[in-house]
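Here is one chain, start to finish.
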Amino acid sequence: MNAFGINLLLAVAWMALTGATSLTGLLVGFVIGFGVLWLVRPLTGEQGYFWRVFAWGRLVVMFLYELVVSSLAVAWDIVSPRSRASPQIIEVPLDVKTDAGILLVTNLISLTPGTLSLDVSPDRKTLAVHAMFVDDPAELRAELKGGMERWVIDAVEGGE
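Its structure:
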């Protein structure tokens, strides 16, 4: 059984011991199970699971940050008297390899206000993105690759 399965088993055991059969009880049990697995880490030699949990947490936090920032930028553009939108379609080369990773990158880009994933090339190496605010295509491309795509690679494919 992998570390995630053991952590989930510990969370369910925590719920059974405390009688807290709710989502909160499961989350508390999951955090306590994570702590227990962290403490016995030298005995098991498991390292990748903890990095992956950290990477997923960072992905969620950074996406929420990007969501708020881009929502404010789009809202400001709507209410301000002069629009600063300069929409363009740019091509972003993809380093993400798995289908799940490509799906997550394209969906996170589409969920972020002001950007929309249009198409993935047949060879799965290029993503076409429509962006609302493009002053410098190379800068936006670097921002998407160093941000959203890098976070997804770390979380889904176990990068670094």
